[in-house]
């Protein structure tokens, strides 16, 4: 019954997983597996304004020669329950050997819309513009990298998410989600050695009691090598996201 109600979404998820597995079978020497973990907090005030952000780590456990930690305060405004805009200031610290460790300050402006909506699933559009300021601990003399760099990019993500469904009394308020995201750097000169090109994801989530929920995604990420000009890096990512969302309580009059 569940598969019947969400047949379109299950087909989307099956296609995403097929592409991930197909890619792994032809490029085993270029694949790495990375774990991401994120905590997201939002305090909603007056049902329109949301204050919070997210923080997390990437690759610390799964990739000993590379790791990242970050914190990103965010301000959101809901025009309607289905349309919102937001602004964020992200601080990212990357630990790596080639090039050297890097600190990034990232400004982001984002628009998000949920449309169209059907009986059992709906689509999510997200457009984000980022201004990135990169600071390396030391110059990469070999490749003539500067200690301080900056670049700008657009990101567009299209996702499809199911409505909540139930399998058992314990496994309820579940949902499925799949999406594709593309990165568009601005300008012909991109200073980073590797920059993201695209992400394909498939996952599931569950809304828990007391304003908590979680989501687990399998992501295939492609990055471009700016020195060689080809897509040379394929990464599989297992991402765990935990959400805590609060709403302002009405004061007793």
TrEMBL record:
Q: Which InterPro entries match?
A: DUF2490
Alphabetized UniProt keyword annotations: Signal
Q: Which residues form the signal peptide?
A: 1-27
Q: What is this protein called?
A: DUF2490 domain-containing protein
What species was this sequence derived from?
A: Owenweeksia hongkongensis (strain DSM 17368 / CIP 108786 / JCM 12287 / NRRL B-23963 / UST20020801)
């Amino acid at each position: 019954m569940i598969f019947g109600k969400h047949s379109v979404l299950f087909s989307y998820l099956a296609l995403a997983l097929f592409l991930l597995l197909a890619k792994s079978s032809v490029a085993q020497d270029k694949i790495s597996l990375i774990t991401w973990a994120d905590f997201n907090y939002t305090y909603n005030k007056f049902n329109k304004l949301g204050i919070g952000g997210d923080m997390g780590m990437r690759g610390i456990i799964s990739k000993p020669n590379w790791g990242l930690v970050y914190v990103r305060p965010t301000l959101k405004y809901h025009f309607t329950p289905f349309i919102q805009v937001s602004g964020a200031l992200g601080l990212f610290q990357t630990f790596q050997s080639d090039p050297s460790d890097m600190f990034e300050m990232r400004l982001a402006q984002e628009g998000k819309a949920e449309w169209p909506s059907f009986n059992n699933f709906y689509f999510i559009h997200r457009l984000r513009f980022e201004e990135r300021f990169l600071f390396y601990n030391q110059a990469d003399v070999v490749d003539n990298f500067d200690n301080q760099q900056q670049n700008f990019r657009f990101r567009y993500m299209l996702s499809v998410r199911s409505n909540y469904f139930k399998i058992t009394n314990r496994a309820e308020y579940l949902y499925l989600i799949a999406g594709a995201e593309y990165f568009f750097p601005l300008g012909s000169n991109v200073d980073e050695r590797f920059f993201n090109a695209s992400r394909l994801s498939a996952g599931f989530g569950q809304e828990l009691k007391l304003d908590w929920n979680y989501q687990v995604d399998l992501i295939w990420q492609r990055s471009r090598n700016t020195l060689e000009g080809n897509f040379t890096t394929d990464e599989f990512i297992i991402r765990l996201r935990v959400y805590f969302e609060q709403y302002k309580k009405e004061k007793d009059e």
